[in-house]
């Protein structure tokens, strides 16, 4: 770990992802929900999604994605940041277990909770570790076994959410290098926390002495209100991130990667930003909404497919519970997905 921090920037040097092998199609869901393939596709853009098998936890997904990112980077890390909404247990954090299983020993490791904006909040945190000299290489993993907190009988959420993990390795470098992380625009509005929440299981419900009502242990989302706020916040933060990067507006992006929440939201945001269809990265059709993992998985898959290549100006944005949102802009480096 270096003591010097002047002029240090965090540079992406490795990337990888992992999706559980079990695939759930829209047809599978129609066998237990009052829905249809056409209804799901027209409202979400999703045809299939991946789901953890019984006994598989967030840490299992995170370890595999982290291993692939470390292989891509050709080295280890002296800190691990895990962005997740579905830790293996309330206490302790899941990141130290992941670090141990990856053979990283006693490095600093902790969880970040910002729901679907977790990857960007984690990116800002990891970049800060490197800029301050606290770490030289940080493994940032975003992982969620989101289906474990979804009510299987709730058509509004069961068709959208899925499981997966993505990871990047960041190293100390220069601010003008491809892959350097600049300003990450972040925001939140706790006054609207009711729009996306799991009502039961936390200290407020537990300290009340009242048992949770049926279904309060599951994720809830006020879809219509979330749609409006997601479009507004992702659009505004994307404009701010492009300006911070010195670009001539968001439309200067060669590639646009938004949290894969819903195809309608993605199209509206990209249209509002003036980004043409061929520049939009998307995997929602066969991956769904994987929570904190969404952006990381999208980047890893796009890099592996070649739709995201070295030199592309990349604009990233996300929105989730909190409410919390974020965006950043960077030039994609020459990395091969693990």
Keywords:
Thiolase-like; Peroxisomal Thiolase, Chain A, domain 1; globular; 5-stranded mixed beta sheet; 338 residues; alpha/beta; disordered N terminus; 2 domains; 23% strand
Descriptive report:
This protein has 338 residues and is α/β, with parallel strands linked by helices. The chain folds into two domains: 9-173, 3-Layer(aba) Sandwich (Peroxisomal Thiolase, Chain A, domain 1), CATH 3.40.47.10; 184-331, Thiolase/Chalcone synthase (Peroxisomal Thiolase, Chain A, domain 1), CATH 3.40.47.10. It is built from eleven helices and 14 strands. It has helices at residues 26-30, 37-44, 58-73, 95-101, 118-132, 155-158, 203-208, 223-244, 263-273, 284-287, 294-305; strands at 9-18, 23-25, 48-50, 79-83, 108-112, 137-145, 163-173, 184-188, 196-197, 220-221, 255-258, 280-281, 313-320, 324-331. It has a five-stranded mixed beta sheet, sandwiched between helices. The protein has a five-stranded mixed beta sheet with strand order 8-14-13-11-12, sandwiched between helices. The chain has a two-stranded antiparallel ribbon with strand order 2-3. It is globular and about 55 Å long. Residues 1-6 have low confidence and may be disordered. One of its GO terms (molecular function) is 3-oxoacyl-[acyl-carrier-protein] synthase activity.
Tell me the name of the CATH class of the largest domain: Alpha Beta
Order of helices and strands: EEHHEHEHEHEHEEEHEHEHEHHEE
Helical proportion, percent range: 25-40%
Structural domain count: 2
SS summary, helix count = 11
Low-confidence sequence ranges: 1-6
- The CATH homologous superfamily of the largest domain is called Thiolase/Chalcone synthase
Question: What would you call the structural class?
Answer: alpha/beta
Strand order within the widest sheet? Answer: 1-7-6-4-5
User: What is CATH's topology name of the largest domain?
Assistant: Peroxisomal Thiolase, Chain A, domain 1
Q: What is the approximate shape? A: globular
SS strand fraction? 15-25%
Q: Radius of gyration over alpha carbons?
A: 19 Å
- Characterize the biggest β-sheet: 5 strands, mixed
Rounded to the nearest angstrom, the distance between the terminal CA atoms is: 25 Å
User: What is the total tally of β strands?
Assistant: 14
CATH architecture descriptor of the largest domain: 3-Layer(aba) Sandwich
Question: Could you tell me the mean pLDDT?
Answer: 96
């Amino acid at each position: 770990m270096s003591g010097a921090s002047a002029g240090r920037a965090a540079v992406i040097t490795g990337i990888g992802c992992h999706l559980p092998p079990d695939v759930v199609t829209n047809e599978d869901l129609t066998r237990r929900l009052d829905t249809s393939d056409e209804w799901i596709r027209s409202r979400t853009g999703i045809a299939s999604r991946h789901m953890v098998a019984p006994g598989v936890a967030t840490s299992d997904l995170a370890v595999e994605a982290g291993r692939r990112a470390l292989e891509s980077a050709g080295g280890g890390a002296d800190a691990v940041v895990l962005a997740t909404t579905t830790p293996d247990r309330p206490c302790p954090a899941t990141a130290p277990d992941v670090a141990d299983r990856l053979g990283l020993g006693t490095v600093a490791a902790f969880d970040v909770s910002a729901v679907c904006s977790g990857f960007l909040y984690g990116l800002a945190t990891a970049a800060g570790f490197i800029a301050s000299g606290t770490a030289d290489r940080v493994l940032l993993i975003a992982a969620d076994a989101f289906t474990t907190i979804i009510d299987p009988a709730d058509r509004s959420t069961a068709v959208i959410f899925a499981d997966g993990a993505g990871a990047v390795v960041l190293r100390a470098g220069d601010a003008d290098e491809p892959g350097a992380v600049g300003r990450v625009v972040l925001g939140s509005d706790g006054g609207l926390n009711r729009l996306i929440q799991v009502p039961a299981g936390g200290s407020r419900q537990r300290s009340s002495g009242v048992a949770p009502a049926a279904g309060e242990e599951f994720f809830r989302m006020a879809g219509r209100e979330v749609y409006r706020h997601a479009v507004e916040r992702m659009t505004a933060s994307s404009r701010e991130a492009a300006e911070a990067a010195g670009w001539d507006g968001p439309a200067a992006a060669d590639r646009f990667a938004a949290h894969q929440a819903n195809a309608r939201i993605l199209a509206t945001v990209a249209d509002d930003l003036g980004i043409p269809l061929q520049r939009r990265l998307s995997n929602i059709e066969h991956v769904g909404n994987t929570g904190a993992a969404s952006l990381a998985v999208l980047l890893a898959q796009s890099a592996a497919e070649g739709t995201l290549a070295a030199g592309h100006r990349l604009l990233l944005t996300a929105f989730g519970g909190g409410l919390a949102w974020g965006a950043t802009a960077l030039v994609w480096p020459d990395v091969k997905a693990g």
